[in-house]
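Predict the holo structure. Ligand: uridine-5'-diphosphate.
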Amino acid sequence: GLIEAALLAAEHAQPIVSPTVWPAERPSAYDVMIVGAGFAGAVMAERLASQSGKRVLVIDRRPHIAGNAFDRLDDAGLLIHQYGPHIFHTNSKDVFDYLSQFTAWRPYEHRVLAQVDGQLVPIPINRTTINRLYGLDLRTEQEAAAFLAARAEPVADIRTSADVVVSAVGQELYEKFFRGYTRKQWGMDPSELDKSVTARVPTRTNDDDRYFSDTFQAMPAEGYTRMFERMLDHPNIDILLGVDYREARGAYPHDRLVFSGPIDEYFDYRYGRLPYRSLRFEHRTLAQEWHQPVAVVNYPDEAVPHTRVTEYKHLTGQESEHTSITYEFPAAEGDPYYPIPRAENQALFKRYEALALAQTDVTFVGRLATYRYYNMDQVVGQALATWRKTFGADAKPRSE
Ligand code: FAD
Ligand code: UDP
């Protein structure tokens, strides 16, 4: 398959981490500087270069493109995700078609098991989960719904991440699957987090054990980094890696800026820091063929320090005598991975957003710059819309 071809090519020739490329004959000024080579920055760069005819400089302080979706071959030749498991899923045909210009796909439907009461059971909670945990034989959706209804504790006004789950499955299943995991992942109780966080995970009464139910579910056949290389491979695009915006901003003249880093950092934390949650990733290669039955196993038990373990061969279809896995340990300090959805944080973001709206020559886009807990497809959709509105056919002329 494609992944094998990619691996062969990578083994014999090109490194998957792009070196910093700086053409000898570079323009004296760029139309647009783009900060961040993740989904937000790469989509903006691709549209601006190929559709708007702009000369674009993309910079990233990391030594690679693809942002948090960056994947690479490890020492065992296995494709791993440097910043944790990235599973592509979307209901948007537009987003899927757009990305399909830059990659072929490997069909993949994500399945996750949770270790609860010493067993591995499906999460999202479904009929199989209930039957396994309680030694039951519920056979219909109605029976499973009745089981849950008998335990669910109605909440008049569902506001928090605890309310969402307790009102759907009751206190016991909430504690088994959600309380510990959430307390570890976010460093706070689900009752302190917006409902949108645990609402990402549905409850099912059928036996569908897929993590997502989106129309399009697939992995880029040669990995995310390869897809980004194709998006950014345009004569109008220069790329500068390992360079922070602070260093680049004065050195490379540009008419406009697209910023996809943390919005509070852009404004020098004028109103204080926006809270982000971080993770520490521990990557390991084991001298055995398989480690676990599915790509991701969740560990809701608060006594276990990690939240989940990912085994990549399930995602890639690679074959090997070895297997590579990643443990995720939540952390307060480190790279900003997750905006933390809470009313007070949203209020602080709104103050920064007001500053952003006043900057006529700067466009803020992406998960960090718009402080939204967005999946990859949502960031692609946001970037496409932002390009259309700011630079495309829908753009208003700039007032000088
Ligand atoms: P990023 O990918 O964070 O890119 C921003 C880039 O800007 C970074 O590379 C950063 O180095 C650079 N940058 C920031 N500030 C500066 C500066 N001052 N100077 C220079 N460069 C700068 N989504 C899914 O759809 N499915 C998943 O399964 C999934 N799993 C995830 C798992 C984890 C652990 C995490 C953290 C996220 C996951 N996501 C998933 C979400 C996904 O990673 C994001 O939606 C997406 O990567 C956001 O793209 P972005 O361009 O907005 O931000
Ligand atoms: N969650 C949980 N137990 C699980 C899975 C998820 O408590 O087994 C909660 C947890 O708060 C998590 C949120 O639901 O942060 C969203 O889960 P998702 O898998 O979407 O997280 P992500 O992949 O974005 O880290």
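Residues 161-186 form the longest helix (26 residues). The CA atoms of residues 43 and 118 lie 44 Å apart.
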